Every structure is written in C-alpha cells, then in structure tokens.
Amino acid sequence: MSMERPRILVVDDEPFYTEVLHNLLRDEYEVESAATGEEALAKASAVPLPDLVLLDIILPDIDGYEVCYRLKRNAATSDIPVIFLTVKSDVDDEIRGFNLGAVDYIAKPISPPIVKARVRTHIKLARMIQQLEDMVAQLREQSSAVSF
Questions:
Q1: Which side of the chain, N or C, has fewer Cβ within a 10 Å radius?
Q2: Domain ranges within the chain, ordered by starting residue
Q3: How far apart are CA 147 and CA 12, in angstroms?
Q4: For the chain, which residues score pLDDT lower than 70?
Q5: Is 57 exposed, middle or buried (0-12, 13-18, 19+ CB in 10 A)?
Q6: Does domain 7-145 match CATH 3.40.50.2300?
Q7: Contact between residue 8 and residue 52 where contact means Cβ atoms under 8 Å apart
Q8: Do residues 103 and 81 make contact, with C-beta atoms less than 8 angstroms apart?
Q9: What are the tens digits of pLDDT across the range 107-138?
Q10: Which SUPFAM superfamilies does the protein's record reference (predicted)?
Q11: Is 140 exposed, middle or buried (0-12, 13-18, 19+ CB in 10 A)?
Q12: Three-class SS string for 63-92?
C-alpha cells in the first residue's frame, strides 16, 4: 500500500452505482471501476494494486463472493480490504461475505456519509497494519544482524 493517494476499485455492473461512488470518492481517492468479476480480478492484480475494493455481489459473470474468494487466495491481493456493497442484505449473505475475508458489508441503497466513513476507516487500518508489519520486519532484521 503506497502512501500516495489511495486507489479504490469499484466493482459494480450498474453504471448508476459506479458513477455515484466515483463522484462520492474522487476528491480523496483515485477511483477505478470494473463491471464484471473477471475484469475486477484483472484490475485488482494490476500494479499498482488497489488499496481497497468496493465489491457488488451480483455481477454478470462470476459473483462477488467468488471474486472475494479469489482475491483472498492470491498472495498478491490477499491483503487488499474488500467491502461488499450490495442489495443482498440478508444476515446469511453478510456472514458469507465476512467468512470469505471481507472487512465490511454495506447494503444498497447506500448512505454516502457511511460509505465515505467506512472507506476512510479501512484505508487507515490497512495502512497502520502495513506500518506495523514493516516495523516488525525491521526489528527482526536488526535482531538477526546482532551477533553475540
């Protein structure tokens, strides 16, 4: 995760939601979109990687659950936070999403302040986790370099 302007990948086949999310987030983030699961997987794997994925479940090819599953099983994309953003609001759908590795779940229709707050929170958490992991790696290197 870079310290530059965070990149958000919006995955939704409904142009209305893609446009709404792009307009909502573009002032703070670089926003890219994908309309299918396969396109999402390709864009999520492209360098530079997105810092967060907003993912619909209902897509025309593979569903968002499968996209999340594949992202979390790929070493290059496994740490990218995924937030499901979908009309599927049943508790079982939410549980399934969390079990696949999503960090959050937002039901449509969306509340713009809620989306912005959750995106901001998960970007910040991901950056803090990365900083901690970098610090631990540095400490390990330093301790292994010390000889007795």
A1: C
A2: 7-145
A3: 54
A4: 1-3, 147-148
A5: buried
A6: yes
A7: yes
A8: yes
A9: 999 999 999 999 999 999 999 999 999 999 99
A10: CheY-like (SSF52172)
A11: exposed
A12: CHHHHHHHHHHCCCCCCCCEEEEECCCCHH
